[in-house]
Design brief:
There is one protein chain. It is built from 13 helices and no strands. Helix 2 runs parallel beside helix 6, helix 4 packs antiparallel against helix 11 and helix 6 packs antiparallel against helix 10. It is globular.
Amino acid sequence: MFNIGFYHSFVTLIMIFQIIIGSGLTLLGLSIPMPFQLILGSAIFFGLPACLYVKLSGQKFQERMEFKKLSPKNILYIVCLSISVYPAALFVSAIASLFFTDHIPEVLGTMADGANPIIMFMAICMSPAFFEEIFFRGFLGKPLKHLGFKGALLNGLYFGLIHLNPHQFFYVFALGVLLYYMLILGGSIWAPIISHLIINSLGLMLFYLSPIISEYAHLSLNFLIIPTIIFVILLRKFIDDNKGRLIISEDLKAQNLQIITPSFAVMIAMYLFIIFSFSLF
C-alpha cells in the first residue's frame, strides 16, 4: 500500500542525518578533504539508504531503479535538453542571489585549491549524478509516478529541500521536476543520471572558465533567450516521441491522495529550522 507519509519522513530523516554527521565530524576534529566529503556524503546519505531499502524490501535492484537501455535518439534529446536548460537555471540562481547568499563559488574555490581536477569532477559531477538519482528518481521517483503531476512536483520538492540551501532551492526544485520526467519519458534511470552529470559538469566548467566568461557578460540576455527557446522546442519533441510512457496505470485513489499531511508539515518545519539555525552562525 502506498504511504506518502513514509517518503516525507524518510526525506526528513536524511536532512537530520546530514546535519548530525556533518556536525559530528566537526566536533571530533576529523579533517576530510572537501571533495572526499562530497563523494562519501553522496554515497552514504543517498546511495546507501536507497540500496538498503530495496534489499530489505525484497525487490530487485535493477527493476526498482529502472536500469534499462536508452535509445540513441533519447540520449541525444537528454544531452541537448540538459545543455539548453542550463542558462535558465543560471538565471534563476542569479535571481535567488538577490535574496540569499550564494556560497557555491566560495566552496568550489576552497575545494579546487590544490585539488586534482579529476577528483573535482568525481566529487561535483559523477557521485551526485549517480547516487542522488538512485535516491531521488529511482527510490523516490518510481512510486510517485502514481501521483501524476503532483508526483513530479513532490519529487522536485524533495530534491530542493534535501540540498539544505535556500539559494539553490528554486532552480534545484525545477531541475528535480525535469529529471523526474526524464526518468518517465526516457524509461530508464540512466536518463536523469546523464542529465544530472551534464548539468553539474557545465557548472564545474563554468567555475574554471569564469575569469574568461566574465568578459562576455553583455551577452547574458541572448545567452538565456536562445537556449531557452531551443529547450522548449526540444522538450515538446521529446514528450511527443515518448508520450506513450506518460500513459501509466494511475491509481485514482493515489491521484486524490492528500499530500499535505502532518509528516509533510514536519518535513517543511525541519528544513526551515535547519536553514534558520545555520544562518545564525
